[in-house]
Design goal:
single chain; 251 residues; alpha/beta; six-stranded mixed beta sheet; five-stranded mixed beta sheet; globular
Length: 251
Amino acid sequence: MRDRVVRLVVAGSAVLAAAAGTAGADTTTPMVTTAAAAPVPRVPPLPADMVDTGGGSQLITAVAAGTASTKGTLTWWDLRDGVWKAAGSAPARFGAAGLVEGAERTQSTWTTPTGLYDLPYAFGIKHAPKGTRMPYRAVTPDSYWCQDNASWSYNRWVEPLPDDCAASESEHLIRYRKPYAHALVIGFNYDEPEEERGAGIFLHVNGPGPTAGCVSVPLEAMRRLLAWADPDRGPHIAIGTKSGETAITSY
């Protein structure tokens, strides 16, 4: 009887040993080799691909997919140690009729002019955001932007409205409380205004939809822009499309 028990114990041990060996073989994790990830090509920042950035160390880019677009992206950039770096970004809106080459733009077409422009000054119905360094003009009940082609004040802020500028052909700025809460004047057709080219092109706060030719962004983005822009660093704005004749890189 004792011999039988011993034989059973030995036989059971052998079975367990065999099973253990089999289990170990089945559960061994196979060696997996992973191919090294391909290096991601370095894409230069947008301003580095542009023909001109205005000569300063701050730049705003407003880019649409194409000339028929009414939406796109606005990014503001700093040039530090010879390298452009994005300081912020926001969704942007353009004219209800899209974008058009700035040199060919005409008034009342609801198009946003493409090109590279300076930013003469800022204005707003609300107080300037904390940190604003750009010259900032407060809108009053007497503030107008003259868009009358027959006026000597064409494409200029006037206060009060001069006799030669028809109110019906001017913007009474205080009426646009949401869009003109804060704004930056875009220097399109500004230094030496040409009749019929267009007047009152601004970077301002979003209204209910596409603009009449301006560029607009959300309120918080506009406030951040005004706290960022430094007139001593020569900020400019470049408006264009991703490709084609109005590609932003061509300006």
